[in-house]
Write a structure and sequence with these properties.
The complex is a heterodimer of chains A (about 325) and B (about 350). By secondary structure, chain A is mainly α. Helix content of chain A is about 70%, strand content about 0%. Chain A is globular, with a radius of gyration of 21 Å. The N terminus of chain A is likely disordered. Chain B is an alpha/beta fold and about 350 residues long. Chain B folds into 2 domains: about 160 residues, Response regulator (Rossmann fold); about 150 residues, 3-Layer(aba) Sandwich (Rossmann fold). In chain B, strand 8, helix 9 and strand 9 form a beta-alpha-beta unit. Classes of the chains: A mainly alpha (about 325), B alpha/beta (about 350). The interface between A and B is large, with 40 and 40 residues.
């Protein structure tokens, strides 16, 4: 198409190209949304569908924001799925109805804030542990979080005795399942978290430090940044976000068990990578992470809507991740 | 670019051209990696094709959150009637409420819906064989074995058992194990669990566990009980490799101790034909899927009436011992598909020719 255009109109094209190249993730998202809109004859643009998408992706968004920050510092976290699973189980155990005889604390009625406190502390502690292992133990993040993943799974099975933690109080479930007017509560929480993360990354010294460490840890250290302390901080923040994710997920499902959130690390890491957070460290934005989550969400939603076989869905997901990382690597290899 | 747009438009029109007249049934399937669930789904497809029904079948890959998302998606597509193989009993009420909100109905299989889920409305059904029945049938088979071979028992009517369990926390793991243990105790045996551990449904993990156990407990166990055929066959391989065998198969197996599975897969039946695996239990995927499908179809075509016969089965009339078929208020919504013991006497009839 460009070849057919008269010489005089090349200038704005360049502008468009520059825009596309700068905002690949946004352009991908919008194109996929339009494609899905066409394939579903406009149904995917209707409010119930948009609402479903928001509900479906909210919990993942928390996990993605957490691991996104870690990847900015050039780390990785594989423990997400089982940490969220453990948190959901802990939170659920404090939110069971008191007349449920099979409850973990049968006959006890806890205040509504306790499951959240317990869940967020659990998540935060695992984040702290990950951070300490990576920063002070000098373990590769890949191995450290692989280990804590197994630890979290073990704790979950021991704590719940492998049973389903169900029969949660309606008041607890409403926190996740309710809505403010037409907008689901979950989306509001994500929005709030986004604001916090945006401020943290863009307007605090700590945020700047994260980018500096990811860009070049050695240089960051030389310039006076306490790399260890900041590394512990980023993993702990991520752990707190997983904590919130687990609490909300338990409320959304009305239960937690050993299979809850399994594999969420893959979804979260894939989402932020698609959203332009570079595996080479030092690159990524809050908005990119959210766009990444929504992009994978729209692909999931589209494939479900069109009835694509789940085995093929796995293939598609895998290819998307590989492609996203490939282009990411290519982009930054060129730059360096 | 233009070509792409034309291609897209053609695609859109093609999708739009699908007739709307066919009844639509949504099938929310827990996880197609499980043999039983895969067989269940395969039969649904056959039934839908025969009945001229549009079947929207979705696999949640063992994730309840995904299953909820899939349900919401189908509801926005206008689907009202469902066949559901849920992930957890505890999630069924929430799903039933979402379906009730659009005036639909559903039949639940494999994992029992809660009583509360069936109480959501008269259009919600159990079309299943509760997992615990598989365990109870294993207990019956074991009881028969030791009645025929009392010498195999340890003193004091004691059963020294090794248990290979499915994925911990999985409902089938939990209920099958509980039921076989309770069943044996109820029959007056002293059950001594020599060792039990998960092998995550997998033959290779089961084989590894069994290798270690044979070394540690040689001669100290008199039965191997597993939650599925895959693990049972892993244990059989391990016993064969360790030469834990005897000269004859008078008691039905050349192994020194009987090994039991659940599922009656074709490889398991072949192993029985070779006098290796002792016995298994058939969870009737065809029976469950046919019952659930006929209920959903009857609702979708307005033919459902209380007392409707699905796959030749009538709903229960008297409350039994297991939820949800233990509640008089919903007993008319419960269709119990029988499990079948698969033993030396009848295994040939389950083999596909």
């Amino acid at each position: 198409m460009a070849a057919k255009t008269a010489a005089g109109t090349i200038e704005p094209k360049k502008g468009l190209r520059a825009f596309i190249s700068k905002n690949t993730n946004l352009v991908t998202f919008v194109s996929l949304a339009i494609l899905l809109g066409l394939l579903t004859r406009g149904r995917s643009f209707e409010w119930p569908s948009v609402r479903n998408l928001m509900i479906a992706e909210s919990v993942r968004a928390f996990a993605a924001l957490g691991v996104g920050m870690i990847i900015i510092t050039r780390g990785i976290d594989l423990s997400i799925g089982y940490v969220v699973c453990l948190v959901a189980s802990v939170a659920a155990s404090f939110a069971q109805t008191s007349d449920y005889t099979a409850a973990l604390y049968a006959g006890r009625d806890f205040p509504l804030w306790l499951p959240f406190l317990a869940g967020i502390i659990t998540g935060g502690l695992f984040g702290l542990l990950n951070g300490v292992l990576v920063a002070y133990g000098r373990l590769p993040a890949f191995i450290a979080t692989l280990g804590t993943m197994s630890v979290a799974r073990g704790f979950q099975l021991i704590y719940t005795k492998a049973a389903v933690v169900g029969s949660l109080k309606d008041s607890y479930k409403t926190i996740s399942q309710g809505s403010l007017g037409p907008i689901p509560n979950l989306a509001l929480y994500v929005a709030a978290a986004c604001v916090v993360i945006w401020v943290l990354l863009r307007h605090t010294k700590r945020g700047t430090n994260f980018y500096a460490i990811g860009g070049n840890a050695m240089a960051a250290r030389v310039s006076g940044i306490n790399v260890e302390r900041e590394t512990v901080a980023v993993y702990t923040y991520a752990g707190i976000l997983y904590g919130i994710a687990g609490c909300l997920l338990a409320g959304r499902l009305g239960l937690a068990n050993a299979l809850t959130a399994n594999g969420m690390e893959l979804d979260a890491i894939a989402a932020v990578t698609v959203g332009g957070v570079s595996q080479t460290g030092g690159v990524g934005t809050m908005s990119g992470m959210v766009i990444g989550v929504l992009t994978l969400g729209i692909i999931n939603y589209g494939m479900t809507y069109l009835g694509v076989d789940s085995y093929y869905q796995l293939l598609v997901k895998g290819f998307i991740i590989i492609a996203a990382v490939y282009f990411d690597m290519k982009k930054y290899a060129r730059r360096s | 670019m233009k070509k792409l747009i034309v291609a897209l438009l053609i695609l859109v029109v093609a999708f739009g051209a699908f007739g709307q007249a066919k009844p639509v049934i949504g099938a929310l399937i827990r996880n197609l990696d499980e043999q039983f669930v895969a067989d269940y789904a395969a039969n649904l497809k056959v039934l839908a094709a025969k009945a001229g029904v549009e079947l929207k079948l979705l696999d949640s890959r063992s994730d309840q959150a995904t299953q909820l998302d899939q349900l919401n998606t189908l509801i926005t597509q206008g689907v009202k009637y469902f066949v559901i193989v849920p992930n957890q009993t505890e999630a069924t009420e929430q799903m039933a409420k979402a379906i009730k909100a659009v005036g639909g109905g559903a039949a639940f299989s494999n994992i029992q819906p809660s009583v509360a889920a069936l109480k959501v409305g008269p259009n919600f059904f159990l079309a299943s064989s509760p997992e615990s029945v598989a365990g109870s049938i294993q207990a019956d088979i074991i009881d028969n074995y030791f009645k025929k071979n009392p010498a195999a028992l340890a003193p004091g009517k004691t059963i020294n058992a090794l248990f290979l369990l499915g994925q911990l926390g999985h409902p089938a793991q939990k209920y099958r194990t509980e039921a076989v243990k309770n069943g044996l105790k109820a029959k007056g045996y002293k059950l001594n669990v020599i060792a039990e551990d998960t092998a995550n449904w997998k033959p290779d993990e089961a084989q590894q566990k069994m290798d270690a156990w044979i070394a540690a407990y040689n001669g100290k166990f008199n039965i191997v009980i597993t939650n599925n055929d895959g693990m049972a066959l892993g244990a059989v391989e391990s016993l064969l490799t360790a030469k834990y065998t005897k000269a004859d198969a008078k008691d039905g197996t050349i192994l020194k101790v009987p090994v039991l599975g659940v599922d009656a897969t074709q490889v398991a039946l072949k192993s029985m034909a070779e006098d290796k695996l002792y016995a298994t239990v058939l969870q009737d995927s065809v029976g469950q899927s046919s019952t659930a499908f006929e209920l959903a179809l009857a609702m979708a075509t307005g033919k459902y009436k209380p007392g409707f016969k699905a796959w030749g089965l009538s709903p229960e009339t008297k409350p039994g011992s297991e939820a949800p078929a233990n509640d008089a208020a919903v007993i008319g919504q419960c269709y119990l598909v029988p499990f079948k013991a698969v033993t030396k006497e009848n295994y040939k009839s389950f083999m596909t020719k």
